[in-house]
Design goal:
By secondary structure, the chain is an alpha/beta fold. The chain contains nine helices and eight strands. The strands form two sheets. The protein has a five-stranded parallel beta sheet with strand order 2-6-1-7-8, sandwiched between helices. A three-stranded antiparallel beta sheet has the order 3-4-5, covered by helices on one side. It is globular. Bound molecules: adenosine-5'-triphosphate and the ligand Nc1ccn([C@@H]2O[C@H](COP(=O)(O)O)[C@@H](O)[C@H]2O)c(=O)n1. Its main location: cytoplasm.
């Protein structure tokens, strides 16, 4: 069981997954991507033909959601049943509906219970858990709580550099739309009491990891 829990929240494209994964590698910790559970559920609902706008139908489909995720930062995968959905859950069709699914209270309580089980069973000394409500709901008592952020235009530019098949305007529109919808459910734009902000707007990837590890080790932010 992990003695140390590091909670990291932030808006879309702020670097939560890439920075958390790399920091976990360096510290020998496990890494839990909580957004993957919401994405995998959205993928599963689309696959089963469930209307993702219908909260009752989404709640009804939760019992059949057979989800597993690797918490090894060197061997990351996500599965629904026997299907490896690691890549598929990043597709725009999933990103486009995930916020609708994540706003359903029964979804949030079910996946939060799942996260608590994964955290409790992690074999490493520590685990880095990233998402939107980790510092406030999933692990408010975590030893270290960080809000990882960056200016919206910088996040858009970084995301559109990754998604070569999509126009910059479309990527920007989707990122803004998702942040707006997600912000209506949880506040990940402002740091809660006791949460340290790391702003990567003007710093590169490696320096961001150094800053995050510095906060975890108790250096000044
Ligand atoms: N400090 C940084 N400097 C440069 N690039 C960065 C920095 N931090 C993250 N990136 C890049 O920004 C992109 C988005 O990062 P990442 O996917 O980790 O964000 P995220 O917060 O997990 O996004 P989402 O919530 O949408 O899944 C990646 O290409 C990543 O390599
Ligand atoms: N703690 C969380 C994490 C994620 N979500 C929802 O999932 C979507 C995908 O998350 P990514 O981190 O992969 O971008 C996100 O847009 C939220 O709708 C959440 O609600 N809580």
């Amino acid at each position: 069981m992990s003695e140390i829990v590091i909670a990291i929240d932030g808006p879309a494209g702020s670097g939560k997954s890439s920075v958390s994964k790399q920091a976990a590698r360096r510290l020998g910790y496990a890494y839990l991507d909580t957004g993957a559970a919401y994405r995998a559920l959205a993928w599963d609902l689309l696959d089963r033909g469930v209307d993702t706008d219908d909260a009752e139908a989404v709640t009804g489909a939760l019992a059949g959601f057979d989800y597993s995720i690797s918490i090894d930062p060197d061997d990351y995968w996500v599965r629904v049943g026997d299907v490896d959905v690691t890549e598929a859950i990043r597709e725009p069709r999933v990103s486009g509906v995930v916020s609708q699914v994540a706003r359903v209270p029964e979804v949030r309580s079910t996946v939060t219970a799942l996260f608590h089980r994964i955290i409790a069973e992690a074999p490493n000394d520590g685990i880095i858990v990233e998402g939107r409500d980790i510092t406030t709901v999933v692990a408010p008592d975590a030893q270290t709580r960080i809000l990882l952020t960056a200016a919206e235009e910088v996040r858009m530019a970084r995301r559109s550099a990754e998604l070569t098949g999509e126009s910059t305007a479309r990527v920007a529109e989707q990122l803004q739309k998702r942040d707006r919808a997600d912000s209506a459910v949880v506040d990940f734009m402002t740091a809660a009491d006791g949460v340290t902000t790391v702003d990567s707007t003007d710093i590169g990837f490696d320096e961001t990891i150094d800053r995050v590890i510095g906060v975890i080790r108790g250096d000044a932010a």
